[in-house]
Amino acid sequence: MDARSGASDRLTAFGTQLLEAHIWLREMLEDLSDAVDDYIDGKGLPPRDLRAHCLTFCTALDRHHKGEDAVAFPAIAHDYPELRGVLATLRTDHNQLDWLMQGLRKVLDALPDEPDPATSAKARQEITALSAVMLTHFIYEEKKIVAALNALDVPEWRADPPAFLLVDD
Predict the structure, then answer these.
(1) Does residue 128 fall inside a structural domain?
(2) pTM for the complete prediction?
(3) What angle do CA 61, 67, 71 make, to 5 degrees?
(4) Domain containing 98: what range?
(5) pLDDT tens-place string over residues 45-80
(6) Total number of domains constituting the chain
(7) Looking at CB atoms within 10 Å, which of 28, 48, 57, 69 has the fewest?
(8) 124 part of a folded domain
């Protein structure tokens, strides 16, 4: 391995880690969506467990976005000022996703022990909206900033990965 290859491997890590975090968050949302579907079908988790599952997902997504806003976006803006408009759009998306998560939590907090058509429809609507915005946001973000993240050299991120790169098991 030559020095150039080693540097390339090092530089691609942050973009790759972002993609891994997005895959993990997509899987978490898919699991939550499946659990809501099971509840609506009269099987699966009780509302209390759905709320806990939602809290876990929402906390992970919130941690990811707050980490991007506080750490990743300022670093990218510093080195790539031409991406500041993209970063502003992504921050707006973060606010919208936060609002959608609040709506989903409210609906899940109101779920009765046995599903009824009105609350079931609202739960499905909330999770569908959150999923649509989150997936669109991730695709846009991946297209626009992964290359910039791959080019960043931030030694402290390698030693202590920031929240936006973390994937919990």
Answers:
(1) yes
(2) 0.90
(3) 160
(4) 47-153
(5) 899 999 999 999 999 999 999 999 999 999 999 999
(6) 1
(7) 48
(8) yes
CA angle 9, 10, 16 (to 5 degrees): 75
C-alpha 104: how far from its chain's center? 15
pLDDT digits (tens, 9 = 90+) for 81-133: 999 999 999 999 999 999 999 999 999 999 999 999 899 999 999 999 999 99
**DSSP of 5-60, one letter per residue?**
HHHHHHHHHHHHHHHHHHHHHHHHHHHHHHHHHHHHTT-S--HHHHHHHHHHHHHH
59 within 8 A of 163, measured Cβ to Cβ: no
Domain-located, residue 77? yes
Cα distance between residue 38 and residue 40, in whole Å: 5
Query: Sign of dihedral through CA atoms 135, 139, 144, 146?
Result: positive
